[in-house]
Each structure stands twice: as C-alpha cells, then as structure tokens.
Amino acid sequence: VGSFHKDDGIDIEDFEDETIDVDTVEPKRKRQTHLRLRYQCTFPGCSLVTDTCASIEKHVRTAHLGGSESDDSRSDGEEEFYYTEIEVNVDNVTQKFSEMCTSSPPEVVGPLSPSIPVPDHDYQKKDHNTKFQASSVPSSGFFHQGITPMSFSNPPQMKRSMSWQSSAHVSSPPTHSLSPPIRVTKPTPQERLHQHQAQSPKSHLYSVSPKTTGFHKKPRSEVRKCRKVYGMENRDQWCTQCKWKKACSRFVD
DNA sequence: GGTGCCGGGAA
DNA sequence: TTCCCGGCACC
User: Fold this and answer.
1) How far is the CA of A123 from the C1' of C1 (A)?
2) Where is this region: Disordered (predicted)?
3) A86, A98, A146, A237: which sits with the fewest CB atoms below 10 Å from its CB?
C-alpha cells in the first residue's frame, strides 16, 4: 500500500507544483510590477522561452500536442500544462496582456462532480495509512487550480491525476479480487434508493411486507465492504463509515 | 450467524 | 461534528 501511495504521491506533488505556481506567482506579479514574466516550455527536451503566453501556447500546441494553430477543439487549456511562468527581474510593466492570459487559466472550474473519487472523508482526516491522501487529496484546492471535467480528459498530467484518482481507491484494499471501487458521478444505489423513497409518496410502504410486494428495502450489494475485505481484526483499516456502521464509503457499487 | 447500515444517542 | 452502537433487513 505504501509504495502505491508513494508513487502516486509523487505524481500529485509534481502536478500540484506545476499548477500552484500559477497561483503563487500571481500575487507577486501584482505587487512587483517590475517583474517581467516569461513563459518557458516544460515539455521534456524543450525549454523554449517566449514573452507571451499566447506564443508559448501556440508553440506547445503545435510542437508538442500535435495540433494545428487553429485546432481549438482539443486545446482546452491543456497547453498550460506544458509551460511554466518564470519571472525575470526587468523594469517593464507592460505585461497586461500576459497577465490577462495567465492569471486566468481556463477557469472553467466546475466542481468536478462530487463523486469523482470523493475521497473518503476519513482519508482526509486521520487514517494513518493514508496520510498521503490527507495531505494531498486535491479536495477543493485541487479544483481551484483550473482543473475541469473537460480538461480532465486530455492532458497527460490530467491523466496522471486521473490515474491517481482511481488508484487512490484501489490502493487500500489488500485483496486483488476486487474491481476498483471507482466512484463516478452517480449516487450509490442506497442514495438512489433514498432519493427514490424520499420522492415517492409511497415511500413508507416499503416497510409493509416487502416480501409480498416484491420491493426489497435494501437489496444487498454484492460488493464486499471493508468489514469483509479487511476483517474484524483489521478494523482500523476500514473506512470511517464502516467503522461507524454506516454505509461504506470506500467500496461503493 | 454474518453482514451492511439506518437511526439515534453520547461526547 | 465526530464517534459509536442497538437493532433490523438481508443473505
């Protein structure tokens, strides 16, 4: 488990560094007007530096992403992941354009659907064997980096992130017999059941002889939950929900 | 009898 | 809010 997390952790940190730079650099830029921004291509083997983000994006798009200059369809800001801003101490304050370009990376920031690996909240808190996640789970900050569901799909680094997203969940269970409990943007069956019950005027009827009505209150999932996977002796490895005898948050259907 | 988890209570 | 558990449905 440890190595799994570690590998992914490195990815995450790399990723976060790259994106956080944009944010951390930004305030400086506003205060120190004599700093000049340059844009350096970070694509492996390429260190081209340009004056404007437009040109670096163009460069990345054409030279590394294989797109044409007018190929906007697959350039949802993904060029940004191949260049970085660097500051040059020059007395030149005419950087408005570049500021406009860089200060708002494709802010299509949409809350990634709540479910994409909604990290176990217990992971975010204290789980000792998932401390890495606690520190680097890209909860809100992650999405504030301008990562969007759309940009999620293409750029390689986003793919890394994706792989982390899913691997983070695969990582915990010691058994390999399980399909990864990847969460997608849909409610769990129980949530759906509850929603349905809440919305249905007959919601209270399910408790009346469910066997005769054929409506089962809680069709049991075939997914093995923490209790079954880890066993009672490894209760500390259960997700918090299971520890609390709540609906498992780690192994959802 | 084991499992999953709702409902509710204690801290 | 976090944590825990009684109790019930399901298997």
Assistant:
1) 16
2) 153-221
3) A86
CB A29 within 8 A of CB A37: yes
Residue A54 has pLDDT above 70, yes or no: yes
Residue A247 beta carbon within 7 A of nucleic strand B: yes
Q: HSE on the CB side for A213, CA within 13 Å? A: 11
A224 touches strand B (CB under 7 A): yes
In a domain, A174, yes or no: no
Pick from A19, A3, A2, A25: nearest CA to A161? A19
> Helix, strand or coil for residue A101?
helix
For position A88, what pLDDT does the model report? 59
According to DSSP, the β-strands at A49-50 and A35-41 are antiparallel
Alpha carbons A87 and A106: distance in angstroms, whole number: 21
H/E run at residue A35: strand A35-41
Residue A228 Cβ under 7 A from any strand C atom = no
| Residue A243 banded pLDDT, cuts 50, 70, 90 | confident
Look up the domain containing A52 and give its range.
21-102
- Rounded, the Å distance between the CA of A127 and C1' of C5 is 21
Quick one: which residue's CA is nearest to C6's C1'? A245
- Residue that terminates a domain, selected from A67, A102, A137: A102
Domain boundary among A47, A68, A102: A102
Instruction: Centre a 10 Å sphere on the Cβ of residue A155 and count the other Cβ atoms it contains.
Output: 21
Strand C nucleotides with an atom less than 7 Å from a protein beta carbon:
2-7, 9-11
Is the C-beta of residue A46 closer than 7 Å to nucleic acid chain B? no
Q: Classify residue A216: in a domain, yes or no.
A: yes
Where residue A56 falls among pLDDT bands split at 50, 70, 90?
confident
